[in-house]
Design goal:
The complex is a heterodimer of chains A (114) and B (108). With 114 residues, chain A is an all-beta fold. Helix content of chain A is 0%, strand content 55%. In chain A, strands 2, 4, 5, 6, 9, 10 and 11 form a 7-stranded mixed beta sheet that branches. In chain A, 36% of the residues are buried. Chain B has strands spanning 4-7, 10-14, 19-25, 29-37, 43-49, 52-56, 59-64, 69-74, 83-91, 96-98, 102-107. Classes of the chains: A mainly beta (114), B mainly beta (108).
Chain lengths: 114, 108
């Protein structure tokens, strides 16, 4: 059983398009995260939700909007994609709140904007 | 200057060697994480520390809050330990900072 899954694994799209990445966890965790890893492999946290409530919202363009329909899902919607959005996006979950517990990562979604 | 600095940036070791990766940070923290990113890209959370020391198998993580420093040690290193190791902190001001990673290669 996959603990944290993301779809799609690869996403290639044109500048200006709108796209979504989905994340699901079957661990019963209360907290989910989105991370971005850029072309230089630098990792940074973008958002975190705890029980469907946004608790971390780092400095991210408002073209990025997370949506949590329930505590097992955290989707990332990106509007008006730009070249600089090309990166690998990782979803993660943890039992506790906000970076205080071991996190379980999804396999990543490689987004390429042409 | 990054709030989290790791050293070394790159490390090559012979199988069986004892390895130390260092993480220094400049902010007050409430939690520090060590992450491992495999060559295939997958990320595993190794440790979460707020004080003291933790051990899991051949890996040991320590933190000195006063000196703002953490170390990750690998005993009896093995080629499967080859990965990028990333240090990340949550500051007491609820900001999040990540190191640029230490790339470890263990040669058989």
């Amino acid at each position: 059983d996959t603990a944290v899954s993301q779809t799609p694994k690869y996403l290639v799209t044109q500048m200006g398009n709108d796209k979504s990445i989905k994340c699901e966890q079957n661990l019963g965790h209360d907290t989910m995260y989105w991370y971005k890893q850029d072309s230089k492999k630098f990792l940074k946290i973008m958002f975190s939700y705890n029980n469907k409530e946004l608790i971390i919202n780092e400095t991210v363009p408002n073209r990025f909007s997370p949506k949590s329909p329930d505590k097992a899902h955290l989707n990332l919607h990106i509007n008006s994609l730009e070249l600089g959005d090309s990166a690998v996006y990782f979803c993660a979950s943890s039992p506790g709140t906000s970076f205080t517990d071991t996190q379980y990562f999804g396999p990543g979604t490689r987004l390429t904007v042409l | 200057k990054n709030e989290v600095e790791q050293s070394p940036q790159n490390l090559t070791a012979q199988e069986g060697e004892f390895i130390t990766i260092n993480c220094s940070y400049s902010v007050g923290i409430s939690a520090l994480h060590w992450l491992q990113q495999h060559p295939g890209g997958g990320i595993v959370s190794l440790f979460m520390l707020s004080s003291g020391k933790k051990k899991h198998g051949r890996l040991i993580a320590t933190i000195n809050i006063q000196e703002k420093h953490s170390s990750l040690h690998i005993t009896a290193s093995h080629p499967r330990d080859s990965a990028v190791y990333i240090c990340a902190v949550r500051s007491t001001g609820n900001q999040f900072y990540f190191g640029t990673g230490t790339s470890l290669t263990v040669i058989p």
